[in-house]
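Bumping with the actual sequence this time:
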Amino acid sequence: MKKGFKQESIMEIKKAVYEDLSEILDLQKLAYQSEAKLINDYSIQPLTQTLTEIQNEFNKNNTVVVLKLINNENKRIIGSVRAYEEKTRVYIGKLIVHPDFQNKGLGTRLLNEIETYFPNKIFELFTSSKSEKNLNIYKKNGYKEFKRKKGGDNYELIFLEK
């Protein structure tokens, strides 16, 4: 990184377009490897999702927003998040950051940005009980646990809202 450059100046968040979906799916499969390892389950939906499925999700309705985090130095997508609205709730999912760029506040930036697209709504998301880093990010950003559900043999899904 060049001297005097701040991370914010080389990272930019934009709405994703249809043509970005293949790159986002590849990143998703890379980013969810650590989650699969934590819960010892490589058949989780983010790893098995197909390009057609993500395209259908993107085209689902007008309330779906997919954001991408771009590294302006090489124009690659290094993060993404998606959300959709149903009545007064917004369901946030697939908050991902490339493993090489994690622990730099980029996930928080994506989370905060997606929230701006849905003012005055209740936000809901979930993660596994083994995902301590995810839980810490969500709690730091005002999310509170409201429900647990069995996820697999050795973990629960924790649902949080804000």
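The tokens above came from a reply further down the thread. The first strand starts at residue 11 and ends at 15.
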